[in-house]
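User: I'm writing a tutorial on reading structure tokens. Could you give me a worked example: one chain, its sequence, then its tokens, then a sentence or two explaining what the tokens reveal?
Assistant: Sure. Here is the example chain.
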Amino acid sequence: MNGDSLNILSYTNEDSGDSSDEFIGSSTEVSREPIDFINEANDSDKEEYEAHDNTYTSKDQNITKPLSKNKFQFFDPKLNNNIFKLRDQNDSMIIGLAKKQMLYISGIFRLQIIKGGIVYNNNHYDSSTSGFTVWHPLVSSIAAIQSSYFSGWNEYIHIEEEYRDIVELYLKEFTCIVKISNSNKELALESSRLYPEFAGFWNDKKLCHNGSSKKYTFTILNEFSDHFNKLSINQEWNSVMEMITRDFKEYKTELRILVLGGKNTGKSSFLRILLENFKAESLKKKKTEDIYYFDTDPGQPEVSDPECISLSKMSVRNRMLGHAFIRNDIEMIKQIYLGSSSPQDFPNEYLASIRKLLESFENNIKNATSVINMPGWIKGFGTVVVNYIINNYKPTHIVILETNSSKNNTEEIKIPAEYEVDSYGETTRPFVFKINAHSQNPSEKVHSSLAASHIRTYKLLTHLHAISCSNYETDFDFEPLVHKAPLQISYGHSGITGIQFLEEFSNLNKEDIENSLVGTIVAINTCETFNGNAVEFEGSFPIIKKRLHNMKFLTLALIHSIDIKKSILNIYIPGTKRKLLSDNINKTLIIERKKTETPIQELNVNIKNYENVNKPFLSAATRKKHEHVWKVRKNIKRRGHRMK
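And here are its predicted structure tokens:
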């Protein structure tokens, strides 16, 4: 590979952007509401804008022209001027953008480009009848939707007839026109009913002043007055992404991409944006290739269930942008429950699980593009894991995100000069890119005080409260689980035929087993090679003394209670997993209790909406003699303990 960079933003007449997919709303009428917000920028803000590179690529000529300062405008949302509300079933807005204006929106919403084009994370998308579902949580940096021109020859305004007057009479002077609609994933935004601190996870009601309101699943942000982080891609990252994307476009070889770095260096963000580059190329060239995704970070999984690692297949042509916390566009090939957010808790088991994922990939998948999302564990035994992956996965492209403190650790990573890729002795050389990691500017405005542990809790709650999934859409019910009847499943000689604890707890007294399970999160697995001799009954409980390692993960479950006399477990499982469990009910089922923590919101329903609910798992009984209660010291709080 040479040092030439691929110009992803070059527009060709092949980029028509037309699609057979429909993205059309129902009959609506325009809402003529008074202007309720006018943005005034101060002098320093205007000077900052005037200092930007004000150039644009001509639609008809392959040259650049300077854009005069007095023509450059920041986006100033004004109702019935550049924003028109529509009273339709999706609560849509039509927004006009002038040259190079950047629109920032938080929440979950659907985006259709009606006229012109947009640039999103350095990728260009033309107007089309097709739309995108965009995920912009306020807890992550938000990418700009920047106006651009249509890159093909024959531009068409993709708007329903009942709205055409709005575009032709009121918005015809705008370079780009987009339609923003409520997502049908609005139920994913209601997690604050159960966990009030999540009220600002996607949208902040304090920011509903730019034509937005509480009925929308999105909020139009003001980049000067609202507190949020903007996502920007520096030239170093962009150059590396362009080179890898060029290889993907030309498909010279089987791409295997590994991104390494310490914690909070931007590994997941780099891969997310890189896959968006692949998407943009696939939409242009109408490629239908699938991407195989190794999700090996149990603490911050992109597509896996909480505290799991997995290998999955996803379509590169999916119509999603941004940071999707809930993915239904994937086909799960293999998933393994680790039972902790940190692989350091079970290092040998983690390495063995990585080995199983790689074996599944090598044995079943050939000549495909794949990527690995790694945790930030690059010290000590973590280096052993990384070197194992390099030697067995044999990545064609290795991206190392470095900080000043991590350079010494990355020096311990051993990258061979070349790999042997087949039995005929053919070899290939990996391309290695060492670039600076993402760094948070201390002067940037940080909106949310939610720590990584809170985001893990959010993912676990949305996982447990998913009730149905169809056509790549998920419905949620954030009513406390204790309001609902649990699923009953027998244990002992049928149903759940084995219960496995961590090795240090494998010799629990039978009197303590019930308390060790009730109110906890467990994994339900199948095991085809299960040997009944490995089970010892402690009372009615079938306890596995010798650990099993060849299990197939089915689902997480929350144990509500246990009927010991009838040998029945009362459990909650996600509604989206019930069919999977039902299909495997006649197989050997094993419960695995590890370190996954139950969200306190499921145990202590002390919320305004549910204040009359009895609190489960809490005892009002008088304590026995010499029995004590652990008390939390409240005079010591670390940053991660503060929810606000």
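What the tokens reveal: The first strand starts at residue 29 and ends at 31. The chain has three domains: 29-221, 235-436, 483-603.
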